Amino acid sequence: EITSLLSLCGGQFSGEQEIRVNSPFWILNIPSEEMARGLMKRTVCAKSIFELWGHGRSAGELYASLKNYPMDKMLPYLQSDSTYKVHIHTFNKTLTQAQKIKKIDALEFFLFKGKVNLKNPEHIFWILEDYGMNPNDVPEEPFHLYFGRWIADGQRELIESYSVKKRHFIGNTSMDACLSFIMANHGRVKPNDIVYDPFVGTGGLLISSAHFGAYVCGTDIDYNTIHGLGKASRKNQKWRGPDENIRANLRQYGLEKYYLDALVADCSRPIWRKGLLFDAIITDPPYGIREAPRRMGSQKETVKSVERSTDNHIFVSSNYHLSDIFFDLLKFAAEYLVMGGRLVYWLPIYRPEYTEEIIPRHPCLKLISNCEQMLSSHTSRRLITMEKVKEFKDQDENSYLLDGQYMPYRGHNSFREKYFSGVTKRIAKEEKDNQK
């Protein structure tokens, strides 16, 4: 997310030090404070950003580092007529108030000339201490200490204000608000973009993009979901209400003006005119766990089910293998994304068999990031971000079929069976343990 947002702001990701996976603190090189503020106006992963004045592995190293920081950068914030306050934040350890005051006083002695103002200070400074990630083995002294001037906070309050629990219209697979915003940031969604979700469902991914000023649209094969009909997914509610639909969700957050439309359509048979239409495609395809992958079929095909909506709308749905879903999705993105546009989607994985070779590829799309979210001990899903780097030609339409890597992708088709085999084994083990 940070890498994508920096590139959106015109910057580039580079660390002064190697990013430590087991630490909540990062040191980044960012060209300007303006860019840092722009980053924090979007991120839901980062809590705050600071101008780093000094850091070290001990208090002595921290003080020495502070003395080496250029004085001309510090002086504007240390004037005798200014006001300030100092926060102290410890990760994985709780300090008493007396301990905090002692640490703050040690810095104030040689740094600050102004007056303390706890309610409305002009400048805010933070001491950050990292005591590691193991709550069962907390060291006496921190592994790393940082001191810096606070610049801005991230947008983590969006996670609560857009919570699915408070949303007007939800379904079985409505995306968590935090993940929705992360996906929009991976897609580098910006004002006046056009963002499309081919598996739109209840429109959860449209909301985060609309929040950032993009115009949004989607399609779904489920007539009842698009029209807000049928049984409700919310607990203690039997049927959906008269105004439970995607438009009502965007209206709930004051985003209705960004809503283009949602159409009943089969994404395996694109309905769009030829040309570059979308700045980003952000979606969560069905994995076959809570929602079955479906596409339109005919009576001549092997029929999986026939469904009738409340308005006597009938369609025949047939099997739609996961591997085919992903290849259709990549082909569609290669053809309909603008150059530099991004495809962001979730790919379900059976972890014991995972290798990077099973990530679907397309010659027009460059893999930007591949992030894992654990679902269980044996399954996960990966947030795949790809960027269009080459114009789509007719010969690219089925190019993935020509290389030797196509067969490993077929393993995605059995994800449902592998998922439930793990669940069955876990239940059997729990029953066996309970009998002991």
List the helices and strands and how they pair.
Elements: H1 2-8, H2 33-40, E1 48-56, H3 59-68, H4 71-74, E2 83-91, H5 97-111, E3 115-116, E4 123-130, E5 144-153, H6 157-161, H7 177-186, E6 194-197, H8 204-211, E7 215-220, H9 223-227, H10 246-252, E8 259-264, E9 278-283, E10 294-296, E11 305-308, E12 314-319, H11 322-336, E13 337-350, E14 365-374, E15 379-388, H12 406-409, H13 415-435
Parallel strand pairs: 2-3, 2-4, 6-7, 6-9, 7-8, 9-13
Antiparallel strand pairs: 1-5, 4-5, 10-12, 11-12, 13-15, 14-15
Helix pairs in contact: 7-8
List the main descriptive attributes of the protein structure presented here.
seven-stranded mixed beta sheet, 13 helices, five-stranded mixed beta sheet, alpha/beta, 436 residues, single chain
